[in-house]
Amino acid sequence: MGTMFRSEEMVLCQLFVQPEAAYISMYELGEAGVAQFRDLNPHVNDFQRRYVSEVRRCSEMERKLRWVGGELPDPLPPPKPSPHSLSPREINILEERIDYIESEIQEITRNARNLKADYLSLKELKLLIEKTQTFFQDHSAQRKISASVYNNEAVIAHLGFIAGVVATARVASFEKMLWRISHGNIFFKQSQINVPLTDPVTGHELQKTVFIVFFHGEQIKMRVKKVCHGFKATLYPCPATYKEQQEMLAGVVTRIKDLEMVLEQTEQHRRLVLANIAKDFNTWMVAVRKEKAIYHTLNMFSMDIVKKCLIAECWVPKTDLHIVSKALDNGVKASGSPIPSFLHYVPTRETPPTFNRTNKFTRGFQNLIDSYGIASYREVNPALYTIITFPFLFAVMFGDVGHGLIMTIFAAIIVIFEKKLSKQRSDNEIWNIFFGGRYIILLMGIFSIYTGLIYNDMFSKSLNIFGSRWKNVYDNKTLAGKKFFDLDPAAAYTQEPYPFGLDPAWQFAANNIIFLNSFKMKMSIIFGVIHMAFGVTMSVVNFNYLKKREMIYLQYIPQILFLLLLFWYLCILMFMKWISYSALSQDPAYGTSCAPSVLIIFINMMLMKATEAKEPCLSFMYPGQEALQKTFLAFAFLCIPVMLFGKPVYKMLADRKRKKYQQGVESGDTTEVAEHEGEGMGEMMITQAIHTIEYVLGTVSHTASYLRLWALSLAHAQLSAVLWQRVLKIGFGMGLHNSVKLYIIFAIWAFFTLAILVLMEGLSAFLHTLRLHWVEFMSKFYDGQGYAFVPFSFAAILENDDEDVKPQTNGSPPE
To answer: For a 10 Å CB count at each end of the chain, is N or C smaller?
Structure first.
């Protein structure tokens, strides 16, 4: 957790690597993923870099493998672990193997496509002959009709015909065009093919129709052929006599059977070849992509022509420097070079990248913070505290034992089977969000169970675990005569608190909503003020670490005083009201009827107005309250000018002192320096005024913003109660004898519980909790102006399937 408190210390390193040792060293650094390299050739075209031919070679191998992968069946086995990087000789062998596989699969695919095309033609011819036989009426007499067929036979008599197959969608237009070009001097017959045909190229089903066109004359014959060609109709030779048709049909059927056998053998051979390739496909793809990433990174190195070595610059976490040194040494040993590689630190004033080392549990919470903005280098990381505060504030709004159990069980299943589920890569974005935030959902569910027990709420029903601390003070006769009763706290309450959470008696109280309103509203303000005060206090850690200790006095102390003297005082009044006023109080001024409104007292305090009260009630909750409130108010308003002028005045004095003693300003430049100071002071005053106004007004609005905890909690409880009373309670009223209706009603209740109360209300509470952290909490201390540490890592590169993926090419902060 130490690295979660603030980002790791980064070091800018310069590497001097021998060219023959560079590949092995970069392979080990890619496996480790600890260095973010900077591009030392920003103005050099990609096609003019040192290793451009190697990159092209890898890109070509990757392209071929991607094409081969499109032909392979799913799922593919995972890649085999590689103990070492591939040598140049192994890369050459792999390249030759990929080329051979590509050509072999292309040849097999081409042959299979040709065979399927022949098979489609034979099937169409078979169906055409069968359909054509119905077009001729007199088969027994075997009346000869002269035919003009596909092989350009001569016209024997006065009548000819052409038969073929055309797409069903084009039949209507095809027939109209034939009538137009022949002026109606044709006889057209058609019959749709109901047997499914398959396109040999795309594999899609084809809808086709058999047609026959009877005509007279050679000129019309040529026109009909042109129309057939234009509509992409396939013409087939078809005999005119029934006997010849039967003979041709028998020959076609025999050829189809032979071709089916050949197709089956071809497909078996293709499956066998692809199965052998699939075993090593992912292993080859990983090796090629690693090599491509290595050469991309080596292209960012500069070449020292004199020393004949490669020079690189990279950001490295200080704790991982030994990994970089070891990788350089291993590269030298593997290459057998007598010249070692060197690493030394480069002093720089550049802002390093931000790197927070995370694990599978903390990664989700860190992503929530990074979505708002990457932390500035070495500033306090809110993700560490978000692990607890985020699920807790969510649970305050979502508190229900039943709904929390549903969420916990769902998240627990994902966590238990996370290894299996992580291997099944999915394109479903919603599922990926749920899987990435599984530990967040798990904690939100557990905390919701806890707050549900505090609220004593489970699917809108209370749990009577310890027995109520309220007692019945009415006899049976009185109970039978009325439906609602008032319980006097002085008589009906045992004055012993319920051990944990709310007393179950409140479930049946007529003033249940009024009580919960007051309880949850005050609780929301207390949690909000504590959360904001903690955020303001975290700025002290940043000021102390960044050696800006003067800001503790000029910013933190006035900010925390302004917050505590006004809004924490409001919380203290709430505690005092709970403690001081009681139904058992002997003094009527401190009875429940005289309990004041804390909100009215606070408003009157801000307006410096006296609170009015009727006898025997008191205007103030304790002696000296009015004087103390005026003192608090005065000190709070005195904090505003300190926040407004403190930092600019201090900066101005510090700048003057530094220029006077370090730069030695000449007398002739005094006017120019004064003008420069005036411009800087004015800009600083405007900036500080904006921050001060934002904080003062934000303190009020942010405190009110935490009332969403109360509003959503109340709304969630009421929606749950409505589902119980208007849906499930009706089913229970039917009795067990009507089990079918009860089953249907329970299914409706379960559906709306999951869809509305768990999913929609859960998403709403999640978004409101996110806003409370991003705006109300983190704005008090979080700068978020950094840029992420993106190391050269094979793991990160292989997660991205984009063909043009490249490692981070610039280690400098964004402009």
So the answer is: C
Q: What angle do CA 165, 170, 172 make, to 5 degrees?
A: 105
- Residue 323 zone, left/alpha/beta (φ > 0; ψ -120 to 50; rest): alpha
Q: DSSP label at 668? A: G
Classify residue 725 by burial, with Cβ atoms within 10 Å: 0-12, 13-18, 19+. Answer: exposed
Summarised one tens digit per residue, pLDDT across range 232-263 is: 899 988 887 778 888 888 998 999 999 989 98
CB proximity list for 415: less than 8 A, separation 6 or greater: 438, 439, 442
As given in the structure block, the two tokens for residue 715 are 């709304």
**pLDDT tens digits for range 669-698:** 544 444 445 556 778 889 899 999 999 999
The pLDDT of residue 815 = 39
Whether 336 has a pLDDT exceeding 90, the answer reads: no
Mean pLDDT of 546-557: 92
DSSP 8-state code for residue 6: B
* CA-closest candidate to residue 507, choices 570, 542, 465: 465
For tokens 């800006």, the residue is: 548
Using DSSP's 3-state secondary structure scheme, residue 405 falls into helix
- Whether 717 and 455 have beta carbons less than 8 Å apart is answered as yes
Which whole number is the average pLDDT over 726-747?
79
722 membership: H or E segment, kind and range: helix 708-723
Residue that the structure tokens 């319980």 belong to: 487
Please, are residues 641 and 693 in contact by the beta-carbon 8 Å criterion?
A: no
Residue pLDDT, tens place only, 447-465: 999 999 999 999 988 998 8
Residue 813: cis peptide before it, omega within 30 degrees of 0: no
Cα(593)–Cα(804) distance, rounded to whole angstroms?
A: 74
- What would the CATH number be for the domain defined by 113-263? 3.30.70.2750
Share of the chain above pLDDT 90, in %: 48
Structural domain boundaries of the chain?
A: 2-94+270-345, 113-263, 367-490+498-545+707-787, 549-697
